[in-house]
């Protein structure tokens, strides 16, 4: 018997007693956790598919430990410009072990089922932009800006270059932030052709 379940924004095929590494959960180590967004359950030839989730189905698990994944190196280089940026990243993970798969009878918590106000709040929030499209911003700087509350081109455009430099002061490397707000303004306005033409003349974000 196996199930397809959504955990921390990702879908996994799981079976009983299987160990799974998922994005960091807030549950403490040793605690039980349940996931009710079950998309499919297969028991031999009997396959149940949700629309999108199966009502009453639930996958139970136990949090084994919190850890970090292997280091991933991100290297960016632009020919003939002397632009090289190297950053490392380790994803925060949680190891869980699947303890049970219930096809029916599991009651979903009322707050999750009737979370209309929360859903509206999330929809009202501005969608995050890919800040790495700004010349001079790599994955590490982008994640640092997001942690500081700067998630969109518009927010970056309204932040002074000196303030940006303060936010990323702990990121290794020599970063010039002078053009970032102006680049972000063009991106926010959708002027991609104009932005690309300008970026071809920049060197790591420096004019």
Description:
This protein is α+β, with helices and mostly antiparallel strands and 207 residues long. Strands 2-1-5-6 form a four-stranded antiparallel sheet, with no helix packed on it. The protein is elongated, with a radius of gyration of 22 Å. The chain has helices at 110-113, 116-124, 139-147, 153-157, 161-167, 180-188, 192-199; strands spanning 2-7, 10-15, 19-23, 32-35, 38-43, 46-49, 58-68, 72-78, 83-89, 92-102. Mean pLDDT is 86; it is low at 107-112. 25% of the residues lie in helices and 32% in strands. A hairpin with a 4-residue loop joins strand 8 and strand 9 (83-89).
One letter per element, helices H and strands E, the order comes to EEEEEEEEEEHHHHHHH
**Strand fraction band?**
25-35%
Structural class estimated from helices and strands? alpha+beta
Rg result: 22 Å
Query: In terms of per-residue confidence, which ranges show pLDDT below 50 for 5 or more consecutive residues?
Result: 107-112
Overall residue-averaged pLDDT value: 86
Major β-sheet annotation: 4 strands, antiparallel
Approximate helicity band:
10-25%
The largest beta-sheet arranges its strands as 2-1-5-6
Tally of DSSP β-strands: 10
Beginning-to-end CA distance, first to last residue: 60 Å
**How would you sum up the global shape?**
elongated
Number of helices: 7
